[in-house]
Structures are given as C-alpha cells and as structure tokens.
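Technical note accompanying the year-one report. For the benefit of new consortium partners, we illustrate the data format agreed upon in the data management plan: each record pairs a sequence with a structure-token string. No post-processing was applied to the example shown here.
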Amino acid sequence: MKKYHRSNNPWAIVRVAIVLALLLPLLSGCAHQYGELQWDGEVTRMFRTNSVPETYRYYTDGRADMPYAIVGIDPGVQLVPRYWEPVAPHSEAFARKVASIWLPEDWTRYPSGQGAFIVDRTGKRIGIWYSMYAYTTIAVHEDGRVDIYSPAVTDGSELE
C-alpha cells in the first residue's frame, strides 16, 4: 500500500493562497455581470390593467401584432435598442400588445404572460418585464447601459 506524505512546506500553502487571491476577483466579476428577472404578481397586474408606471420608457420585441415581450425601463438606465421598438404606455396599442403576448389559439405550448421586475447585478430594480417567456439574458454594463436580449434567442447565436 502506497503511503502519502503530507508536506509541511508553508510555501505551498502561500502559493495556493496567492493563486486564489488573484483568481477570486476575476471569478466574482464574471458572476455579477448579468441581471435577472424577479417574478411578481403585481407587475403582471400592472401590465394586464394597463396601469404600468408612467416614468418608465416602454419597448416591445417581436412581431407588431404578437410581441414576444414588453419591457419598461427606468429613465436612469439606457436600453441598448438591438431588438426593441418603443411603444407608448396607457394606450390602446399598448393594451393590444399586452393582450397579444399570449393568445391560447396561437401559443398553446406556452403559459400566459407573466410580469417580473428586471434587476441589475446588485439587486436594484431597473425595469419591468411582461412575456409568456420565462427567460431572457440581461447584460448590465458599467456605464449604465443594459442589453436585454430577445427571449426568442435561445441558442446563443445572436449573443456577442
């Protein structure tokens, strides 16, 4: 039977500690560059009753008559408009888009639209989300910009 010898070399422990100290900031930086959706029934109600906050700027993604998602963005945050088209809240057009998020006759394999808060990497609320899709990628940049990818992008082919 082979015996293992434990080294009492203090420099080995120091080397491991140095490597961990150098890698930890890199790993924590990678882990916190994305925002997330926090599901909330109140956000769902706001969209369904067309009583969303007036201070937010609103955008839709998808087809004009059947959007994939609607977002409201805090005025202190700049949305990268890659997929998104502006839409006026509290209007008939806005109400039609919310109603079109989920049409049972068209979207039988998806659940009905649900609302969520969009939060940055620190947990700060930066907007609201309404969609039948329960996922998206939210990239938060240091300069105050946010990329919210289309929920229709599922294979990463359009991610930069």
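Partners are asked to follow this layout when depositing records. The CA atoms of residues 12 and 18 lie 10 Å apart.
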